[in-house]
Design goal:
Layout lengths: L3 E8 L2 E8 L12 E4 L9 H4 L7 E4 L8 E2 L8 H15 L4 E6 L1 H13 L3 E7 L10 H18 L1 H12 L33 H11 L5 H6 L3 E7 L6 H12 L5 E3 L17 H13 L3
Parallel strand pairs: 3-4, 3-6, 6-7, 7-8, 8-9
Antiparallel strand pairs: 1-2, 2-4, 2-5
């Protein structure tokens, strides 16, 4: 097991904590850093995936407002632009030049925002299923569904809102205009609480859901960036919102999406009680990164 060094970085509006798993002595860190990025998922979610890259220096972090990274700005929500700036600060603090980035879900949206602004800091970006609903052909219905999840959270709490989120994120195909007429899913069916505990500090439902899915990528900036961009989708995710958005982004960039094993959380090895196919996923990621060298 690689030793993990945790560092702290103060940035505008937040204190970030990030972890460095150093490559074995003799490797050249400035040519080997792999930054694993999620949002609002914290560094714990990449524990299994990082274990397959012990030959590289691996960096993980907790996004602002999540786990060990505290927000001080008092804002109700965090934006992809803020997260992108945080990623920039972490990469610059490493003082090792451009890095490779694997980013998933909201982290992929934030990493795309980073490349739009600071492509010189990222050698290769593998953006796995960024749920940027703005690019979808059914964007109006999709964004209305997402707004309803957020409103449900503010009104009824985590259980009912998360039940809707799970149902929506796993739904195949376009969202119909009459989606609001469909019955709401039962939180108990997902093992979620049915009672509202009054808290409203969930980093997904409260802080990042609207801003992440509502982000419009700057395709001109992405195409002109020096970064090699790979847009990835899960083999089992076809038709789901995040995979559909990823496919549309790839098309706009003139790319064919890379198909990775498993589903939206295919790299998970039991973190948060969820399982993908992490060994096969890591092999696909390594192959993709090596193709850029």
């Amino acid at each position: 097991m690689a030793e993990v060094e945790t560092r702290e970085l103060t940035v505008p509006g937040a204190t970030l904590r990030y972890d460095i798993r150093s490559a074995p002595t003799g490797d050249t860190p400035d040519e080997n850093i792999l930054f694993l990025v999620g949002s609002p998922m914290d560094a714990v979610g990449f524990t299994t995936l990082a274990s397959y890259f012990t030959d590289r220096t691996v960096v993980t972090y907790d996004p602002r407002g999540t786990a060990r990274s505290q927000r001080h700005d008092g804002a109700a929500q965090s934006t992809p632009e803020e997260h992108a700036d945080d990623l920039r600060h972490v990469i610059e603090a490493l003082d090792a030049g451009a890095v490779d980035v694997f980013a998933s879900s909201g982290g992929a949206v934030n990493a795309l925002a980073l490349v739009e602004r600071h492509g010189d800091l990222v050698r290769t970006l593998v953006a796995h299923e960024p749920p940027a609903a703005q690019v979808l052909p059914d964007r109006e219905a999709a964004l209305a569904v997402i707004a309803d999840i957020h409103a449900t959270y503010l009104r009824d709490g985590m259980g009912p809102a998360m039940a809707k989120f799970i149902a929506v994120s796993g739904r195949k195909g376009l969202f119909p205009a009459d989606w609001a007429d469909e019955p709401a899913p039962d939180p108990a069916a997902f093992g979620l609480p049915t009672q509202d505990d009054g808290s409203r500090d969930d980093p997904l439902l409260g802080q990042n859901l609207l801003t992440c899915t509502g982000h419009q990528p700057d395709f001109t900036a992405l195409q002109s960036a020096p970064t090699r961009i790979v847009i990835a989708v899960g083999q089992e995710s076809e038709g789901e919102l995040a995979a559909r958005a990823a496919t549309r982004i790839a098309e706009r960039l003139g790319l064919a999406p890379a198909v990775f094993p498993s589903h939206h959380g295919g790299f998970l090895g039991g973190e948060y009680g969820q399982h993908g196919a992490p060994e096969a996923f890591a092999k696909a990621l390594r192959h993709t990164l090596e193709d850029s060298n």
